[in-house]
Automatic annotation (TrEMBL):
<feature type="domain" description="Bacterial transcriptional activator">
    <location>
        <begin position="326"/>
        <end position="465"/>
    </location>
</feature>
<dbReference type="GO" id="GO:0006355">
    <property type="term" value="P:regulation of DNA-templated transcription"/>
</dbReference>
<dbReference type="InterPro" id="IPR051677">
    <property type="entry name" value="AfsR-DnrI-RedD_regulator"/>
</dbReference>
<dbReference type="InterPro" id="IPR005158">
    <property type="entry name" value="BTAD"/>
</dbReference>
<dbReference type="InterPro" id="IPR011990">
    <property type="entry name" value="TPR-like_helical_dom_sf"/>
</dbReference>
<feature type="region of interest" description="Disordered">
    <location>
        <begin position="463"/>
        <end position="491"/>
    </location>
</feature>
<protein>
    <recommendedName>
        <fullName>Bacterial transcriptional activator domain-containing protein</fullName>
    </recommendedName>
</protein>
<dbReference type="InterPro" id="IPR036388">
    <property type="entry name" value="WH-like_DNA-bd_sf"/>
</dbReference>
<feature type="compositionally biased region" description="Basic and acidic residues">
    <location>
        <begin position="463"/>
        <end position="482"/>
    </location>
</feature>
<dbReference type="InterPro" id="IPR016032">
    <property type="entry name" value="Sig_transdc_resp-reg_C-effctor"/>
</dbReference>
<dbReference type="GO" id="GO:0003677">
    <property type="term" value="F:DNA binding"/>
</dbReference>
<dbReference type="Pfam" id="PF03704">
    <property type="entry name" value="BTAD"/>
</dbReference>
């Protein structure tokens, strides 16, 4: 059964996003959904689809006979176990009739599921005692009638994609492999197979959810500016579904490394980024394990629609542009377009594309050393785009230019030349009251790093305050000269 420190919350009511038990579900390590095999309808599929948007990993407990593979494919959730539909045995368990309950197939199946859940949550399960093994041996030798009990599947909440078997990575940094339930002594006497009632002995792997033959491959969206977000565009008529929380931390880091390398990355670079400073005995196996589990998690989150996200390159690992849209890839392409632009219109278009893709700090939740230089380069490219666009709009649209400068302060709050340009624009727009507020904000920001405004900034603010209202200054704080152009601030 489960460990003594495990907390089991049962009978949470209908598995629905509107359920009063939703906070309990959201904080669980595993959510087991009980479904009657003969009552799987469109309403059940809709509720599970809404629950799959967020929350913990999920598994199905089927009650009664049914085609396990078809049900798993229809609901998009792997089957953990199949229990018999036995009201009498269930009543005996509820009322505490131990003699009747322990002799029933439902009790045996329940013990097997408990061991399977324990193996998934803590990586080990309580072994069977010698007396239990002796009892099973005696019944076999004595020719006692064997009860027909359903199989208990290994509880792997990520639907396995069709990938080759690989060795488990060594070392403390690698995630331990999930062993079959039978290896922990689960009571597996008969297993259910897809579309067949043929008996199977031993452990049974969970049935992979196949993609419907008529389904169109819908791309994913990976956003690495700000916090990492993985969005599944399930349908062009609905909003994207975020599946980030269904990925484990190591899988998220791997996805981030791939996302910030649009042209692909070598195996050695991936291993160095994921296991920096660790002496792995078999780094290739460790990487293959994480890649396989990432594919499996994506397949589970998308109901088997997307089973792979790489482009198949044998030399470099790269996210497939036809299946995965990455904001950093759009950002990198826009930066290249800005550097090669030959007209103001092309430069404006490239600058706006850069700002649209870079909505925040690159990978703000990651603290690994490998991301630091990439993050700094992205910050500088974004500031350059803001400066170039502000330079092109300062004469035609000073209000939008002011908004761009204030946006730049979010990325670089202590950049004094930006405050100088903001002071000039406030004066040009006839907003003298904003001059003192801007100067006070600069003073507070610089105090956080032990600095004060330069004399140049103070002189600009003084000249702008003393400037007559009918003589609007140019960007240098002096009389307007239409032949002069705005120059972007240093980053």
């Amino acid at each position: 059964m489960l460990a003594a420190d495990a907390v089991l919350i049962a009978d949470c009511g209908l598995a629905d996003p509107d359920s009063a038990a939703l906070p309990l579900m959201a904080g669980a390590d595993l959510l087991v959904v009980v479904v009657r095999a003969d009552r799987v309808d469109s309403a059940t599929r809709a509720r599970l689809a809404r629950l799959a948007v967020d929350g913990p990993p999920k598994a199905l407990l089927l009650i009664g006979e049914g085609r396990t593979g078809e049900i798993a494919a229809a609901l998009g959730v792997p089957v953990a176990a199949v229990w018999p539909l036995d009201p009498a045995a269930a009543q005996a368990i509820v009322t505490g009739d131990c003699t009747t309950a322990r002799s029933g197939s439902l009790y045996i199946a329940a013990r097997g599921l408990a061991d399977t859940v324990a193996a998934q949550l803590i990586g080990s399960a309580r072994p069977r005692c010698d007396r239990q093994r002796l009892t099973r041996w005696w019944r076999t030798r004595a020719g006692a009638p064997r009860r027909r009990v359903p199989g208990v599947y290994r509880l792997d909440t990520a639907v396995s994609a069709p990938t080759a078997a690989i060795d488990s990575p060594p070392g403390p940094a690698a995630e331990p492999p999930i062993q079959p339930a039978a290896a922990h002594g689960s009571a597996v006497v008969r297993g259910c197979t897809t579309g067949s009632d043929a008996p199977v002995r031993g452990s049974v792997e969970p049935t992979a959810v196949p993609a419907p033959s008529s389904a169109v491959v819908v791309p994913l969206a990976v956003e690495v500016f700000g916090r990492l977000r993985v969005l599944w565009n399930a349908s062009p008529d609905t909003d994207p579904i975020e599946i980030t929380r269904q990925l484990r931390p190591r899988q998220r880091e791997l996805l981030t490394v791939l996302a910030v390398h649009p042209d692909g990355v070598t195996r050695d670079t991936l291993v160095e980024a994921l296991w920096a400073g660790q002496n792995l005995r078999r780094p290739a196996n460790a990487l293959n394990t994480v890649l396989s589990r990432l594919r499996a998690s994506v397949a589970a989150a998308t109901g088997g629609v997307i089973t792979d996200i790489l482009d198949g390159d044998k030399v470099r690992y790269r996210l497939d542009p036809g299946r995965v849209r990455v904001d950093y890839r759009d950002f990198s392409a826009a930066v290249t377009a800005l550097r090669t632009a030959t007209s103001d219109d092309d430069r404006k278009h490239a600058c706006r594309a850069i700002l649209a893709a870079a909505s925040g700090v690159l990978d703000e939740d990651f603290t690994s050393d490998w991301i630091a230089p990439i993050r700094e380069n992205a910050r500088r490219d974004r500031l350059n785009a803001l400066g170039n666009l502000a330079q092109m709009l300062v004469d035609s649209d000073p209000r939008q230019t002011l908004a761009l400068l204030e946006t730049a302060l979010v990325a670089d709050p202590c950049n004094e030349p930006i405050y100088q340009d903001i002071l000039r624009l406030h004066a040009r727009l006839g907003e003298p009251a904003a001059l003192n507020r801007t100067l006070a904000l600069l003073n507070r920001r610089l105090q956080t790093i032990g600095d004060i405004p330069t004399q140049k900034t103070l002189d600009i603010a003084r000249r702008l305050r003393d400037q007559p209202p009918d003589n609007r200054p140019n960007v240098d704080g002096h009389a307007k000269n239409p032949r002069e152009k705005h120059r972007p601030w240093p980053s």
